[in-house]
Amino acid sequence: MTLQERREQYLERCIESLKSWKDLIAEHLDDDDSTPELLKLKETTKGYCDLDHDYKKSLRALEQVEELLDKTEGRSGDEVEQLYKEKLKEDSTTVEYTDSDIWQNVFEGITDVMEVKQKKKKLRDNQFDELEDSMFCSNVFTPPVDPISKAVIREPVRSKKCKHVYERSMIIDYIKQQKRKAKCPYIGCSNRLLQVTDLVDDSNLQSQITQYLEAQDSEDEDTEEDD
Ligand SMILES: [Zn+2]
After folding, report:
1. Of 167, 188, 213, 226, which residue is least crowded by CB atoms under 10 Å?
2. Torsion-angle region of 84 (φ positive above 0: left; ψ -120 to 50: alpha; else: beta)
3. Taking the CA of residue 158 as centre, how many other CA atoms within 13 Å lie in the half-sphere pointing to its CB?
4. Gap from CA of 75 to ligand 1 centroid (Å)
5. Class of domain 143-227
6. Greater confidence, 30 or 159?
7. If you measure from the C-alpha of residue 28 to the centroid of ligand 1, how many angstroms do you get, rounded to a whole number?
8. CB–CB of 171/191 below 8 Å?
9. How far is the centre of ligand 1, averaged over its atoms, from the C-alpha of 190 (Å)?
């Protein structure tokens, strides 16, 4: 196994444990106790986002150094190190936590945990623009978000191999685009070959999503009358 694959595997495990932490909070803690615990979860998740960001940054710097080295020969080790440090400094990208794949994975569809506390919070996804506190404090169904479109999945299909779910049309297009070399688009997933024949329906999830969307629609109608 390459270092890269091992890293992805660890990252996937970390994300899984963060998700079960979130589930435990939702199942066992009431409003008052869940707030500090959610803060801790949020901070820990940020830590992983930072690590991931630093890692990607150093990869980019390395690539640039490698390119430069191809063009010029006879550089000393010190010079190479210096070059690497310069390239790192030049990269001024910052972490957008709620946009990061790790965050999206852990909080599926919820852009910011603490903001869930505020009613009428607008989500990135305009398919539903209101979330109640109960989202985190009870076993309310959270719809899965497609890793490609980042929108709530309406027609789910599941990979038989890695069990991840995707929006049907999105993943089929994606597999076609990648020509037989499609890797599961979930960050950290070690499934390196995803094929259309691996995709199966998940009727249980489909009915939960349908119910969820119907509930959203009727809420929308209610709020329209208020306005
Ligand atoms: Zn996967």
Report:
1. 226
2. alpha
3. 12
4. 42
5. alpha beta
6. 159
7. 28
8. no
9. 7
Q: List all residues 6 or more positions away from 180 whose beta carbon is below 8 Å from its beta carbon.
A: 195
Distance 221 CA to ligand 1 centre (A): 36
Mean pLDDT over all residues of the chain? 80
Q: What is the pLDDT of residue 180?
A: 75
Average pLDDT rounded to a whole number, residues 187-213: 92
Ligand 1 centre to CA of 172 (Å) is 14
3-state class (DSSP) for residue 35: helix
For the cut 90, the answer to whether the pLDDT of residue 171 exceeds it is: yes
What is the DSSP pairing of strand 199-201 with strand 156-159? Answer: antiparallel
Q: Which two tokens stand for residue 31?
A: 């409003």
How much distance in Å is there from the Cα of 142 to the middle of ligand 1?
A: 19
Q: Which two tokens stand for residue 162?
A: 């890695």
Please, which contacts does 46-51 make with residues 24 or more away whose CB atoms are closer than 8 Å?
A: 46/95, 46/97, 48/11, 48/14, 48/15, 48/18, 48/102, 49/95, 49/97, 49/100, 49/102, 49/103, 50/95
What's the full length of the chain, in residues?
227
Q: pTM of the full predicted structure?
A: 0.46
